[in-house]
Amino acid sequence: MIIMKHKHLLLLAAVLLAAACTPRTKDLTLQTKVPARPAGQENVLGLTVPAMDTVRIGIVGIGARGSGAVSRLTYVPGTKITALCDVRPERVEWAQGVLASRGLPAAAGYSGDTEAFKALCERDDVDLVYICTDWIHHTPIALYAMEHGKNAAIEVPAATSMEEIWDLINTSERTRKHCMMLENCCYDFYELSCLAMAQAGVFGEVLHVEGAYCHNLDPYWNEYWNNWRLDFNQTHRGDVYPTHGLGPVAQVLGIHRGDRMKTLVAMDTKPANGPGRVEAKTGKPCEEFLNGAETTTLIRTENGKTISITHCTMTPRPYDRKYQIVGSEGYAAKYPVQQMCLRRSQLEQEANEQLLDQEKILSAEEMEALRQKYPNPMLTPELVELARTVGGHGGMDFLMDYRLIYCLRNGLPLDMDVYDLAEWCCLGPLGALSIENGNAPVEVPDFTRGAWNVKQGFSYAFAK
What we know:
Layout: H1 2-21, E1 55-60, H2 64-73, E2 79-85, H3 89-101, E3 108-110, H4 117-121, E4 128-131, H5 138-147, E5 151-154, H6 162-175, E6 179-181, H7 189-199, E7 206-214, H8 228-235, H9 243-253, E8 261-268, H10 274-282, E9 295-301, E10 306-312, E11 324-327, E12 330-333, E13 339-343, E14 359-361, H11 364-373, H12 381-390, H13 396-409, H14 418-425, H15 427-436, E15 442-443
Parallel strand pairs: 1-2, 1-4, 2-3, 4-5, 5-6, 7-10
Antiparallel strand pairs: 7-11, 8-9, 8-15, 9-10, 11-12, 12-13, 13-14
Helix pairs in contact: 5-6, 6-14, 7-9, 8-10, 12-13
């Protein structure tokens, strides 16, 4: 207990020292250090690598997310799983069984300790290292992979500190290797449809968006290897899992594609249920738990748009990613109910002023008609059918994998780059900085270092 208390005192001292040393702008906005781009290094906007007929994949981490990836990737055309790695040998053996059941050759296996991934990354028959470990190992494995000539795909969140974020950016820029975060929610069918509609102007100018990760994790806390997820929540404030909510709405706003996140403010509630989870798990008193029961981050962009992101995993609040788009002429939401609203004037309908119904809430049939009128170019009927058959959160996991491999096989830019990773992950450390300083505004760095408005709008790349 004395050791734990000493550890937390050191952590508090470090936070206070960092706050004291953190520079502020004239309006008292906190700033973090933006490292200068090393000489001779260029941004990776639109980065491509030589096309690959077959993408040879090494998978590191075969737990809940990694096991699904092993199964899905066997259905993606042009893939070969050549290496498997997990601390636990039985998980590697399980994955070998999946390959055998699909009539595929066995992969090289690595296990036994947390350094086993290095031998996988050093192999000559791996093009892509697919990382599904606990959060604190995401960045070290990705850095090692890129340093050894491999592209890296990292489960969410890919990075948990500003140092890790900048390390990933600089390594991707220097090695010219892809570093993509595996944000599956960007491939949800509803989100994909709304993105196409927003880009077509159906909602007018998009002014505000909301995202969230509200998911009661009570049934799952005991399933994480070595208790890593609960431990991380115990020792970190801020939104520690922001990317499911932020990723899809950031694409709608074209973040670092004509707009950028400029300033954020974060607030959290008291921990409430967190200490009890620790005590139930360890059988010991929990004297400190840092992550709030609910954390909310508000962001303003360079172009005057706003974003609201919520994290809540320890209350009975129903599952909710929000995904809400507020435009000058329309509105769309996935949670708590799928809903779209347009001005009646857009639909050439008259409003009843007594019913306060200037906006028209579209029926399911009307929403489907809009989806058909404004299709997402990625969603071909054949791909939709395959995704729904293979599955993975209804098919969005498969779509994510398919697009990653498709782009690599065709030498195209990936749908998401290392700057998306940086922007979506930074809410954790920057939000913590805001909270620890009385909910002060914090400047969000331009992770592209000057190129955030070179490209205009999010788009997919397709082979000609």
